[in-house]
Request: fold
Amino acid sequence: MASVADHLIAKLRDAGVRALFGVPGGGGNLDLIEAAGRGGIPFVLTSTETGGAIAAIAQAEITGKPGACLTTLGPGAASVVNGVACAYLDRAPIVVFTDNYSTADQERYTHQRLEHAALFKSITNYSGSLSPDAVMQTIDRAFQTLRDRPTGPVHVDCPADFAAGSWRDEGGAGISVVDSRTAVVASGVGPVESIEDLLRSARKPLAIVGLGARRPEHAKAIRALCERLNLPAMVTYKAKGVVPDAAPWFAGVFTNGAIEKTLFNESDLIIGLGLDMVELLPRPWTAEKFILFGPESGASTDGIRQVDAALRRTEWNADRVRSDVDAQRRSVSIPASGLTAQRVVEVAAAKLAGRSRVTVDAGAHMFPATMLWPVREPNQMLISNGLSTMGFALPAAIGAALLDRERPVVALTGDGGLLMCLGELMTAVRERLRIIVIVFSDASLSLIEIKQQARKLPAAGVALGAMDWPAIARGFGASGFAAEDEQGLEGAIDAALAATGPSLIEAKIDRSNYSATLKAVRG
Reply:
């Protein structure tokens, strides 16, 4: 006989969970934390519940195994929603445990009581409770759903009395796992053609690689396809590194924006490999002929196999593809009188890209970061794309750094995004992590300000005010530096690399070129 808490931790450990993140309450998740200690899964206290969920997302994406986090009932459950929504739209498998009143008391008390199942219904693939009459069914269903496709978060509610029960492992075949393998084929002219016909007739096809093709075996196979067939490939934000930026057939980053349209429009067939439409800007899809092998792992594998069997060597020229990629990069390298976000990315990448994983927050700095930071392997760049939430980079860096304490992790964040998760600096300090936070400091919610400018509206509600970021970092116990020019930035990076524990570098940005950058990328 084993306690339910011990059984849950054993299931997490067997699934590959490396840490349990979050902010505990005083109920059932105290039993989970105790069981985690016995079971060899460290509990990492974060400053916010959403920070715990995002750290779990980072570990899930890097390891290919589930992540896990916990919260208290009511306000804790409400606070974690943004992180869970991020996992849902970025298809990250994490388990979210919430406290609750004991089963008998849930209808008796209203203080701090929310309907957790209703709260998580639209942002999880499954939500269940460890009530006495459903312990076995809830655990089985939750862990099955973690493996189902498309992947995403599951929620398990833990009543205060859940750990008082026991779990008897009676073996059995368990529940089968479904891995759907679907491909959508469409043609804008004439009747729908078969996949083979579309592939055989293509002369200048273009591959677009998405989040469903990030496994090492997918990356290896896609790189081989590109080289053997002269097949140019664009990657989405989440798929950066599947085809390395330096590879001869790397064709840029695809968002369904303006910057990548030259090659897109010149192609006669778009082949989506692991592409999930949640990754793309909400704009019309303009390709006349396309094959989309969905984000499910099986669909990606089948798609690679079918392309390999039917597609002939293309008529693309590698120099032509490379010149277009170079033009894309030039189009976002827009000068300004002061230190630009583009130059911060280029200077930092020159020193750090070869040795560091990078996490990227939402904001105006995201465009040069995704275009100009070179990546060689899948999941070396972590970013929130489906939800595109601010406050992602620092907690994601914490999750990543806990997996590899030797290699530094760089978090690229705006000042607005960092303010949303500033307390996680204390988490990084407490865990003594090698994280270098580079803050693009422009004292504004710049992306929103750009949109106000585009509509000829006055700037309103976007000014953050000046902050002494190095002093704030030192207040948490981290090293703090500031840079106003490239030479100062290089010196700050060197100092951060020499420091022990986390560091923060304030890069004081001239944001006057942001509007032109956004126009170049999105049109």
About this structure: Confidence is low (pLDDT under 50) at residues 169-189.
